[in-house]
Design brief:
eight-stranded mixed beta sheet, three-stranded antiparallel beta sheet, 18% helix, globular, alpha+beta, single chain, Nucleoside Triphosphate Pyrophosphohydrolase
C-alpha cells in the first residue's frame, strides 16, 4: 500500500452523500508517508461525563457550526482546534461515504462526513492538543490488515454488547471501534484491500 495507491483509488470513488440532517458533523482522515507505509492520525478523546464519545479513538472532527462554509470546512476547523494542525496546505484526496449516527439521549439522526487529506512526511510531529483531546497517535494503515489486532470491544455503558475493534496502542485505551471503525471499513473497501475485522462487523 502506498499514498499513490490510495490517491488513485479515492479519485475513482464516487462517495455516497446522504441527505442533509438536523445535526451534522465531519472528520478529517489525515494520512502521511512513513517508513512503515502510510499512517493515519487518530485522537483519543478526553474523558468527560457529558461527552457521548468520551475516551474514544476517533479522527479529528466535530459538529458542523452554522458559521462553517460546508462540512469540509468543519473538518478542517475542528482539526486546527483539536490538535493544532492546519490543513490549508494539505492535499484533499477524497471523501468517504457518509455515515449516520444519533445524538446521545436525543434520538435524532446525525450525518457524518469524512474527508481524506495527504500531508508530508514528518507533518504532525509537534501537535498542540486542546482540552477535547487526551492523546494523538499516528497509526500505520497496515495494522488494520493484521488479524491479531482485532478484539471484541465492550463499551462500558452497554457491557452486554460486544463490538468489533482494532487495537492501535494501549489495549486498555486505544481501540478503534464504532463510527471510526465503520469509516475504516469503507476506506479499505475503496482500496480493495483486506480489512482484518471484515468478518466481525
Amino acid at each position: 500500500m502506498s499514498i499513490g495507491d490510495i490517491r488513485r483509488r479515492l479519485a475513482a470513488h464516487e462517495p455516497t452523500i446522504l441527505p442533509s440532517a438536523a445535526f451534522e458533523a465531519s472528520v478529517a482522515m489525515v494520512l502521511r508517508p512513513s517508513t512503515a507505509g502510510p499512517e493515519a492520525l487518530f485522537i483519543e478523546r478526553s474523558k468527560k461525563p457529558q461527552d457521548p464519545w468520551s475516551g474514544q479513538m476517533a479522527f479529528p472532527g466535530g459538529r458542523h457550526d452554522e458559521t462553517d462554509r460546508d462540512l469540509r470546512h468543519t473538518a478542517e476547523r475542528e482539526t486546527v482546534e483539536e490538535v493544532g494542525l492546519s490543513l490549508e496546505g494539505a492535499r484533499l484526496i477524497g471523501r468517504l461515504d457518509d455515515q449516520t449516527g444519533q445524538r446521545a439521549g436525543q434520538g435524532r439522526q446525525l450525518r457524518i462526513a469524512a474527508f481524506v487529506y495527504e500531508v508530508g512526511d514528518g507533518t504532525g510531529n509537534d501537535l498542540v492538543l486542546n482540552y477535547e483531546v487526551a492523546e494523538t497517535l499516528w497509526v500505520p494503515l497496515a495494522w488494520f490488515e493484521d488479524p491479531e489486532r482485532v478484539v471484541d470491544y465492550r463499551h462500558p455503558p452497554y457491557p452486554e454488547v460486544s463490538f468489533p475493534g482494532v487495537v492501535v496502542g494501549d489495549p486498555r485505551r486505544h481501540i478503534v471501534w464504532g463510527l471510526t471503525f465503520r469509516f475504516l471499513v469503507a476506506f479499505f473497501e475503496i482500496l480493495q484491500r483486506p480489512f482484518a475485522a471484515n468478518g466481525r462487523r
